[in-house]
Amino acid sequence: PELTGTGKAELYAYFPGNTTFVAQLDKNSGMPLQQWSLPPLTETVRAWAFAHWGGRFYIFVTTTDSGTGLPNSRVMMFSPVTGMVTPVLDHLPYIIVGAGVSTCAPVVIG
């Protein structure tokens, strides 16, 4: 998984693949406190990153199209309040392998 934290000292993880999910983890044991299932990634996962900002999580994932062999990088926004994933960008010309977040990043917007 890829890990990210929040300004409230919470730890979250993104697990990509056929069984894709986001989980809030206990910082002492690493065990899931809460878990949200996301749509599966049916193509081969090549790279991924995960970040929190303003109460939402941003998932950066690159898959390889099984038909063409070409990479498809996309950005998705995940809301733990609704459990919904919203596409933000698709077919980016980059393979994103990391996303840094400051612990000073806002926990909520507004």
Account of the protein in words:
By secondary structure, the chain is mainly β. 0% of the residues lie in helices and 52% in strands. Strands 1-2-3-4 form a 4-stranded antiparallel β-sheet, with no helix packed on it. A 4-stranded antiparallel β-sheet has the order 5-6-7-8, with no helix packed on it. The chain is globular, with a radius of gyration of 14 Å. The N and C termini lie far apart (30 Å).
Question: How would the blueprint of this fold be written?
Answer:
Blueprint: E1 2-5, E2 11-15, E3 20-25, E4 32-38, E5 44-53, E6 56-64, E7 71-78, E8 85-92
Antiparallel strand pairs: 1-2, 2-3, 3-4, 5-6, 6-7, 7-8
Q: Spans of 5+ residues with little confidence (pLDDT < 50)?
A: none
Spatially, the strands of the biggest sheet line up as: 1-2-3-4
Which percent bin holds the helix content?
Answer: under 10%
| Helix-strand pattern | EEEEEEEE
